[in-house]
Amino acid sequence: MKVLQFPLARITIGFIIGLLFGHYFQISITSLFVVLFVFISVFILLYFLSKRNNKASLYFGIGTYFLSVIIGLSTQIVHSDYFQKNNYIHNKEIFEEPHFISLTIREKLKNSPFSDRYLAIINHVDQKEQTGRIILNIQNDSLHPVLEVGNSLLVKGALTKNKPPNNPNQFDYSKYLENKQIYAQLYADIDEIKIGSEIEKNIWYYSSKLRTRIIRNLEKNNFNKTELNVAIALIMGQQQDISPDIIRDYQFAGAVHILSVSGLHIGFILLFVTFILRPIPNTKRGSFIKLITILISLSMFGIIAGLAPSVVRSVTMFSFVAIGNHLRRSVNIYHTLLVSVLLILLFEPSFLFDVGFQLSYIALFFIIWLQPLLSSIWKPKYKVSKYIWDILTVSFAAQIGTLPLSIYYFHQFPGLFFITNLIIIPLLSVIMILGVLVMLLAAFNMIPIFLSQLLEWSIYYLNKIINVIASLEQFIIQDIPLHFYLLLSGYLLLFTVIFWFKKPSFYRLAVILISIIILQFSYFKIQYKIQNEKELIVFSSRKNTLIAERKGENILVYANDSILKTIKKNSLLKSYSIGNFSTLEQKKRLQNFMFFDGKKIFVLDSSGIYPKNINPDIIILTQSAKINADRLFQEMKPKLVIADASNFKNIQKLWKASCDKQKIPFHATGEKGFYKLN
To answer: Rounded to the nearest 10 degrees, what angle do helices 284-304 and 309-326 cross at?
Structure first.
């Protein structure tokens, strides 16, 4: 690929490698700056040597790439809140007892069933200056005042560290928050909060105020709530209020990407603004006015959309395209892509670990790289057929590129994605133009009713089309397992195959065969590991006891009759089976006695009845059994006691105290998560 010959491409790759290294390995800041100083010194030395001796230019190039890795490493560490001395994560007391915490609301998040949620920035803890991002959870209350972005609050409470998932192979929300530099949450009642009179007026405040003004003016125009929430997502990138059913429909139809503002949306904005500015003459002054207007328009749209990773990426990239057009230079889209990646990650390296950022860049890269190859397969004669063919090739290029990553994260594939894109892209172009116009007028409370109704009807029919496609569930492939090794080897094979199609050669065919061998080796290695595994899992399930025994790919489930009837739809078991490339082969009613790997297990249920002199290795306590724990443990003398999440917390504390007296290990799944025996 010629783009790899561009020095910035290699520098960007080295920079990203440095970011990854800094993310997964902890390095002291002192050591980092020593290494950085050494590499900068070597870089300067090699630079002057390369000026005198052409042979030294090779070493200068190698030194440049190594320096880019070190700069990436230092950027990741410098931007990581964890390494800041005054970050709250280093204050252990704030997690142990209540303190007076001063904070500022930064962003309104999607509410949970029990609380309103906000992203907040800590300013002080007990008058001591501290920093860091947290999630603020305020219990739902009809008397709860509406908090705005920029509100300063004083809350008395203790922070709660993010907990890993309670069950195996579940979505790791704590890791997701950590990638966003959020290490804790704060739970508070309204009576524990004092709202300050001062409001911090920054870019986030004005962005939120503008969005709120637009939404309120649209609501005054009787804009239907369902369509309004979708319009806000399409135009302003805010998905907080969209119903889960609509999001599910968009996921199943393969159109969820249009609910996140990205390159498609910014491209429409650029075309729309360019069209409006056509009357301005292409003189030196007129061209400059056009450029400034386009850059301001894109920046304003990015701010209104909340500066999400995909929005920042798209605005940055299309800004470079606009600058290139202004300078009358043929813009190399690969170089533009690389510059936007490097600039964004220099200022916000955490975006690298954002799923939306990854998917949007991979989709855009494959559209640029693969779409011309697909488009060359057939050359339509008519404009309509060419338009349809272009949409299909763009859709297939983006879908092929993002397929492995989408399956890795979401474990499903929408089979009708091409039909969805073929129908919705023309409709989306109309909605985007109407939406931008209506939102702009709504900011000044000057919305013509016919425009508002036209936008509402367009979104209504868009939702209907999406719902019809999503209802064809037989075309949706779900529960697809994909290991990380298969993800990497799959992309390796995909790249080598496309390279061969672009320019067939024996050498490239040999590389394809090697990639296939690597993919097969990865698969067989994973299968060998799974086939030789044997484990018993006590899940953390609040209402019912759920135990699974896995031998290789086969899972045997123990549960009550009510759970067994719908066990195939159980989310805990589904995540576990997908993560372990396994299937449910057998299900049995929960029994008091179980045997696993030579160990005797006794399950005590709500009856509290147990035989004497059985001496089990493990006791599993369920359903808040009424027992004398001291007597039970003395008589049975277990080596381990497990209390699942179906027990009341106060009873579990008594059981733990009894275990501590008799020095028996105690594991509560509600507190520590699932228990695995292998």
So the answer is: 180
